[in-house]
């Protein structure tokens, strides 16, 4: 199932700005997964499984999500979530900001117990930012503020913000037992108004000479700069019409041509970790060799 | 004047470990200069010009440095600084941790009022980490824990930690009015025991084919990945015997061959900002175009 628009929220800029100011004033936590982003990534839980504002791990749980200290402070966002969605199925609500950074192509939920289609992730941009993109399947999107997006996080997806400007968004995670319909996430089913009027980024084909140049990067890659190449390759599909997972194919190619067996191993492990299967809380360290 | 060893401290691992645990538990602040590092960089002031633990800006001041909340918590490091150094000339004391990251080649103090040689920066590693390097002039160093290093921060220098392991260090900044001797930084001049027994990293010459490959990166560089190339090129001199400032020469070369005039401008501005002259608190944003 592809990512798509489920409905819209009219954001109240005045009320929203107070919450955004509060969120901007908080320090970044230590990120559970910031191994896979460069630049600035700040995730703050408003609801989670423990109510602890320092806990940013998405867990499989049957319990209702608990409001955190941050959720209590963000009265507008709290009201927005509670009035829009059916909170019975919400497992976690986070604000996520990504600035001047890329999140590498990956799949979520693979480490959890349920079938991936029992998890339903919703994203809502809270700010306009034309340089902040999401990719999923064969599509690159620039979400408009207030659009309620289903993000197919169980398939390969990535995110980037190619600007130094804030891109605050709300990420609402639902989980279901058994069959459900998309409209079930809403408090009032009439809010379910799917739309195909999305801001899709048109991407040219990847020119052959640029593809050659990418494959030639094996002449320069080594253990000290492998991670830069990972980020660099992760960005290509935002500009050119290639699948996000090609990132890992190229990485394997340039690792192979480097002649360093540890690079080859790392490229394979990374692919498996990011878009294959991983265990809950399993950590992967890009820059650790042998 | 080159970076060199000024003396040694026998670190008490038991007492030190309590302070390191406290420092590790603190969130990262918003970094004044993290535009120029990737990965994890965490600076925490123990003493500064305001006593505010959230203030990490080095300022020109005639006032004595004020102990911050962090300084009060780190009783061992506080005692170590006060018993070792002449605190009259200390302007700032920070702990700095850099993990799996590089700080690009730059000069410090250029934005301040005094002549650069009136500032005297001392670094002391608090942990052993063979993958944590500093460069200065034509030398790459791996500091040993307890070595008291003069870092010639007014000349071009860089830092990197090529591992995912902590590299906590103490950075003590002194400033003087007029003539002074190195031994004047110590509370007791007998602690001044300069040494050339440093762990210098031997680096091979940069092979011609690798240099060609670096210069060929212009085929792949664009606005979306310029910053990755900056970090990538900043690392080369840690592995090969080339001056750190060559980073900016290569960046200019690949920008020129990209054919994008904005990349050429950015490479020039960045060089000027990092190793030329900049104003106090002037900010530079790598990823902002046109």
UniProtKB/TrEMBL annotation, chains A, B:
Gene3D superfamilies: B-lactam Antibiotic, Isopenicillin N Synthase, Chain (2.60.120.330), L-proline 3-hydroxylase, C-terminal domain (1.10.1720.10). Residues 28-174 form the Aspartyl/asparaginy/proline hydroxylase domain. Pfam families: Asp_Arg_Hydrox (PF05118), Pro_3_hydrox_C (PF05373). GO terms for molecular function: 2-oxoglutarate-dependent dioxygenase activity. It comes from the Bacteria. Residues 183-282 form the L-proline 3-hydroxylase C-terminal domain. The lineage of its organism: Bacteria, Bacillati, Actinomycetota, Actinomycetes, Kitasatosporales. This is L-proline cis-4-hydroxylase. InterPro entries: Asp/Arg/Pro-Hydrxlase, IPNS-like_sf, Pro_3_hydrox_C, Pro_3_hydrox_C_sf.
């Amino acid at each position: 199932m592809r990512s798509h628009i489920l409905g819209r929220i009219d954001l109240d800029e005045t009320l929203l700005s107070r919450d955004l100011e509060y969120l901007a004033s908080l320090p970044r936590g230590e990120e559970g997964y910031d191994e896979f982003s460069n630049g600035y990534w700040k995730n703050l839980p408003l609801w989670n499984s423990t109510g602890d504002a320092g806990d940013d791990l998405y867990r499989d749980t049957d319990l209702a999500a608990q409001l955190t200290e941050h959720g209590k402070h963000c009265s507008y966002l709290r009201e927005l979530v509670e009035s829009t969605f059916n909170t019975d199925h919400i497992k976690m609500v986070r604000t996520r900001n990504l600035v001047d950074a890329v999140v590498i192509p990956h799949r979520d939920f693979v480490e959890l117990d349920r079938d991936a289609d029992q998890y339903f992730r919703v994203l809502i941009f809270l700010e306009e930012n034309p340089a902040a993109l999401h990719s999923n399947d064969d599509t690159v999107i620039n979400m408009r503020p207030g659009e309620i997006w289903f993000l197919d996080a169980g398939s390969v997806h990535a995110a980037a913000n190619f600007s130094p400007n804030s891109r605050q968004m709300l990420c609402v995670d639902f989980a279901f037992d058994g069959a459900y319909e998309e409209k079930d996430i809403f408090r009032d089913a009439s809010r379910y108004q799917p739309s195909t009027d999305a801001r899709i980024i048109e991407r040219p084909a990847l020119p052959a000479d640029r593809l050659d140049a990418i494959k030639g990067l094996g002449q320069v890659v080594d253990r000290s700069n492998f991670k830069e190449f990972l980020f660099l390759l992760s960005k290509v599909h935002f500009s050119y019409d290639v699948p996000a997972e090609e990132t890992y194919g190229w990485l394997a190619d340039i690792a192979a041509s480097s002649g360093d067996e540890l690079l080859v191993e790392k490229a394979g492990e990374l692919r498996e970790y990011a878009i294959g299967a991983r265990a809950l809380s399993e950590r992967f360290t890009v820059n650790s060799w042998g």
